[in-house]
Design a protein that fits this description.
Chain lengths: ~150, ~150
DNA sequence: TTTTTAGTTCTCCTTTTGCAGAACTAAAAA
DNA sequence: TTTTTAGTTCTGCAAAAGGAGAACTAAAAA
């Protein structure tokens, strides 16, 4: 099903995803669905290729689906589900991740509001960070839109 | 040592950090060092305020230091270490995180190189994503420099 | 020299995570 | 109606994470 090179790539992509906090099984499923020659794979193809149990496969797929990393399609006269990567959403996921970080500014503002006013330098450093996050929170969506315009 | 409001804030900041993959103890230490009226706290002040064991405190501080989230200063004629948040580095940490994501483009290019050429649409979607990451990888440092210029 | 201080490291325990395997389910096929 | 298919859910286990407490260490103080 997979060449040795492909297997290695699945592992490598898996590690990339594990570094994001996903479990090995989910991480490998995402890897497989990027690397496999077939874009759409069935439950059992995934299970067999990755040597997972049914439960692990089921859970991994459902987690990936809930995370909007995977979807499935069905075909007339076939009751299998065909799972595939939602690669088109990845750039939104990336941007969402960025924007989530920027929204930390709220928390740091709250910190500032409750801090003693004695520690001028430290408070200033926090304020600078808040400003930075707010700046990024405004500029990143612009950047995203610019890219969208450029590519359509 | 901490007001109730401050304690709650420490927990809230803690959760924020846990969502980044840090353990509760490290997460709370980082929270405490942002919220505490004193900017510099000793080992035992941290330990007592957070109700941690010595080992947990030691490990948490060393992890935070290795992550460049915390540093310590010493004072003449005093052998305690005074730990403090490296808040000034946070915006670099944020940018590093962003740039790390953008460097995923390499991995996806490798995927593309090994993929079958049959799946045109899917490969195109990957290529689009690679382009997007590369675009961000170029524009984000610019944005950062712009902000630096604006604020100095 | 002995004692104290400021932490570090080791051992142990509890909780959580990740997965296997088996039992189960609902729809379709025979 | 019974059987097969395509999964899901439950039970249980093994490994890893997180942290407590005690033993340890190195430098400073007495």
């Amino acid at each position: 099903m997979l060449s040795n090179e492909q297997k290695q790539l699945v592992e490598k992509i898996g590690l990339m995803h594990e570094s994001e906090g996903l479990s090995p099984a989910v991480a490998r499923v995402l890897g497989l669905l990027l690397v496999s020659d077939k874009v759409e794979l069935t439950f059992d193809e995934i299970r067999e290729t990755l040597n997972l149990s049914k439960s692990a496969t089921s859970n991994a797929l459902n987690i990936a689906i809930k995370l909007d990393r995977v979807e499935y399609v069905t075909k007339p006269g076939d009751r299998k589900r065909y799972f595939k990567s939602r690669i088109e959403l990845w750039r939104e996921h990336i941007m969402d991740g960025f924007c989530k970080k920027c929204s930390w500014s709220k928390m740091f503002e709250e910190v500032l509001k409750h801090r003693t006013k004695e520690t001028k330098d430290f408070n200033k450093a926090i304020k600078d960070f808040v400003n930075f996050l707010e700046y990024m929170g405004k500029e990143l969506p612009k950047l995203y839109k610019e890219w969208e315009n450029k590519t359509k």
